[in-house]
Amino acid sequence: MASIEYRARSTRVVAYVNKEKKTFALGEVSKKAAVRFANNIDTLLHERRCNLPLSRDVSNWLADWDDALFELLAEEGLVEPRVKAGALASYIDSYIVGRSDVTERRLGKFRNARARLIEFFGDVKVEVVTPGSADDYARWLLTRLAPATAQKECQIAAQFFRHAFRQGLIERNPFDGVTVGKATNNERRVFLSRDVIGRVLEKCPNWQWRLVLSLARYGGLRCSSEIALLKWCDIHWDADRFTITSPKTRRYGKETRVVPIFPELRPFLDDAYFSEDADKTWVVPMLGGKADKNLGTTFRKIIRRAGTEPWPKPFQNCRSSRQTELEQIYPTYVVCAWLGNTPTIAHKHYLIVTDGHFKMAVEAGDKLGTRTPVSTRHDSQKRLQSVHSVRENTSFSEVVGIMENTQVAEEGFEPPTRGL
Fold first, then answer.
1. What is the Cα–Cα distance from 138 to 140, expressed in whole angstroms?
2. Residue 137 burial class via C-beta count within 10 angstroms: exposed 0-12, middle 13-18, buried 19 and up
3. Digit-coded pLDDT (tens) for 27-38
4. Most CB contacts within 10 A, which of 8, 38, 78, 157?
């Protein structure tokens, strides 16, 4: 057991390490801090003797100490020496270079988050960032970005520092538990009816744009990554199916998935296949396998030509509208297998409550007779008022008198028996 020695201007903790007496000078600290140090030293020695991993409480306690005191523990072999992570900018750059398993679009989000981290913190050392400064950074993001985007950038920052923690470069992740805003913005989620999509399809300049829109709205494909990589060899005409290559889900072991050629989608595929300027390899030649090509600007112009104000997240809402439609017909696990997401993600980011759902609920209520007639409520109240209360220890003669003056329904005292 570690002991505490209180002196005039200094407090020391004495512990036995490998049967040798060791003294740790803490300087002027409170009694509570000295007790905590002694307790954690005991726990640390126990975990080392039993070859156990450091507990979270001990790890957090170690992270609070400066380098001088930490080096004293390292000299005694109680902890591993601290490894310096270096400057924040160079560390994040090396992390981004090592993430060859993600898409170029995701790497772009990493670079955006890096730029804002450097703008706020400066090119400081990684270990200088504290949980308190991480909270300040999260609040600062809200002044620059939408709540949902700010939350995503906090998650990316936590990802950067979690990697540093797992490499042993820092004692804890300062962004652990930091949240700001919200992960989703339901106000930007819009259900696109077929009437709206039909008007936009009419204003598309050529068959390629019509195919892009139909693949997004009626096929549920991600645009432009999954649409750009679609080849004619992936279209299985006889089986009425086609195979989608998905860069986004590749790192999860789901590089491809098979989707039906929906009846709404078939005419656009036929039109593309028999077009004079069709490509022999790519289904959409203007994309030509470029999964990171941005189509948003041109697509918004097409929407305006159709007399409609561009909706938020143009292609994302096409995809979510399709999932909402399919969920009304097929089980969730089937729809998620076709669209390449999970039920959790679908409920959080895709599914939309439409005006049609409200209309169906009202019509279903009328058909099922869920509205209770007013007369039924009055009749039940009258029956409740006609019930006689019998006091405790009532004599048999009083009970007979009550029964003689009580009107009995046609079925009698006992309820009718089924089948008789």
1. 5
2. buried
3. 777 788 888 888
4. 157
Can you give the pTM of this predicted structure?
A: 0.57
Domain 88-183 belongs to what topology?
DNA polymerase; domain 1 (1.10.150)
The pLDDT tens digits of the residues spanning 40-62 come to 888 888 877 777 777 777 777 77
Structure tokens at 367: 């058909």
Distance CA 304, CA 299 (A): 9
Q: Is residue 310 exposed (0-12), middle (13-18) or buried (19+ Cβ within 10 Å)?
A: middle
Q: In 3-state terms, what secondary structure has residue 244?
A: strand
Nearest partner of 89 among 126, 34, 64, judged by Cα:
126
Q: In this predicted structure, what is the pLDDT of residue 384?
A: 44
- Which residues on adjacent β-strands are paired with residue 148? none
162, amino acid identity: R
Mean of pLDDT over the chain: 82
Within 10 angstroms of residue 240's Cβ, the number of other Cβ atoms is 12
Domain-wise residue ranges, the chain: 3-75, 88-183, 190-318
**Inter-CA distances, 385 with 389, 396, 407, Å:** 10, 23, 13
Cβ–Cβ under 8 Å, residues 264 and 188: no
Among candidates 254, 413, 275, 280, which has minimal Cα distance to 336? 254
Q: Is the peptide bond before 224 cis (omega within 30 degrees of 0)?
A: yes
225, 291 contact by CB (below 8 A): yes
The two three-digit tokens of residue 71, written as one number: 């080096």
Query: Of 255, 331, 205, nearest to 244 (Cα)?
Result: 255
The CA distance from 104 to 159, in Å, is 17
- The domain defined by 190-318 folds into hpI Integrase; Chain A (1.10.443)
The answer to whether the CB of 299 falls within 8 A of the CB of 227 is no
Question: How many whole angstroms separate alpha carbon 419 and alpha carbon 378?
Answer: 30
Q: How many CA atoms lie within 13 A of 89 on its CB side?
A: 9
Give, for 249, the enclosing helix (H) or strand (E).
Answer: none
Handedness of CA 7, 12, 18, 20 (dihedral sign): negative
Q: Which of 84, 61, 41 is nearest to 172 (CA)?
A: 61
